[in-house]
Amino acid sequence: MNFSHSYKNLGPAFYQTARPQSPAQPQLLLWNAPLAESLGLAALSHDASLAARYFSGAEVPGTAEPVALAYAGHQFGYFNPQLGDGRAHLLGELSTRDGRLLELQLKGSGQTLFSRRGDGRCALKPAVREFIMSEALHALGVPTTRALCVVTTGEPVYRERVNPGAVVTRVASSHIRVGTFEYFASRGDATSLSQLLDYAIARHYPHLDARADDRAVQFLSEVMQRQIHLVCEWLRIGFIHGVMNTDNTAISGETIDFGPCAMMGVYDPKTVFSSIDEQGRYALGNQARIVHWNMARLAEALMALDSSAEQTAQFQTVIDSFQQRFDQHYLAMYRRKLGLIDEQEGDSALLAGLLELMQQHRLDYCQIFAALTEQPESLPSVLQGWQNRWQQRLGDNRESLQQSRALMRAANPLVIPRNHHVEAVLAECEASLTNTAVEQFLQVLRSPYIETEHTAKFQSLPEDGDVGYQTFCGT
Ligand SMILES: Nc1ncnc2c1ncn2[C@@H]1O[C@H](COP(=O)(O)OP(=O)(O)OP(=O)(O)O)[C@@H](O)[C@H]1O
Ligand SMILES: [Mg+2]
User: Which of 108, 283, 312, 352 is surrounded by the fewest CB atoms within 10 Å?
Assistant: First the structure.
């Protein structure tokens, strides 16, 4: 395994050297064979015991140089100047067949200098949850970090109860977070901040002119656009990230940190499941507002490079453009879900009408959009009036109806990782310490836009409509 270390080579200010723990009995539980292949690791698909040693910390693979990355972050609105990887080890970067540079990071691999009071570990269920949810998002077409494997450690992890321990290996186009910029800005380390900016531009936004005077402003604008896209994609499928702290906001625009994430069933923008999110700060319908807020924090961090009046005004212009840019992207996304090909004045109201009815009658979000796509005649009667307006809007041109249907099929999944199914599969996995249930579930999740033999089994709605469902952070 030939790792490169371009991030680590930025210098010691960016990380702490850290050796992963070495668990006594690493066992491979989940392996992402297609991802392994794209990383040139196909050989490991046939050597589970070597894969388990490599991706648990027991053995350092190839030219890996494990480090824990430094970052800060605003958590629930409050700034913490030093977070960093307290239970993760970056191994380095691998090049994919198609020339992309991807980072591999162990999570749950033991304490580092950033652990504070944490034990550096990860329990089995959250590790498997990260694997399932990131694969599901990837298959749904949502930008996301991915998971290469989950290895059980054979060691206990103490939370409210004793859990089996595990390490999940994350694959990300980078681990640079808004909080990484905040880390250097808050220390007044303009040299590292500028280095980080150049690096992030080269790695994620190579089309930008890195020598332009306003490169930081352009960068902010591009990061914002990707975050707008990300949140709209989350809303398209009803994903609630659950802990959109600035340390969980990746500069690449990928979904990162699946700790307390969940899916919305019944449509309600106030939906929130995270046990610690008492105010609903990270509720489904708040995600746009929060990303806007997070982008303002990124702007503030970048201002540590240049806080001239001119530059400040430029940053402000970008931040102020958020709502308009978001609204545009949001409506475009929903036009696809509704099969609307061109743009008409009343589209926004048409959409609002549907969402209102769904909320009022407690209808399942994904199920309704799937029915709209596949079997509009099966929609509940409370939608009849709305449906007439929608059909009128679609018109009756057969060719364009086909085009509408194609748009909708690509935007409205038949399969999402519903909370109660995720929990049932996790419970089964923990009880048996085998991957059977997870693999079955993944098979369905990996084809979210087509009906397969097992789809129905994993798409049934929860009897209680997710009432009382709770998720947990950092466990
Ligand atoms: N068990 C733990 N031991 C040590 N540090 C931890 C532990 N759990 C979380 N942390 C640290 O607390 C901070 C916030 O945790 P958070 O839950 O957002 O991240 P995470 O799930 O560990 O990782 P990531 O954001 O990389 O997916 C991070 O600095 C993280 O490393
Ligand atoms: Mg995190």
Answer: 352
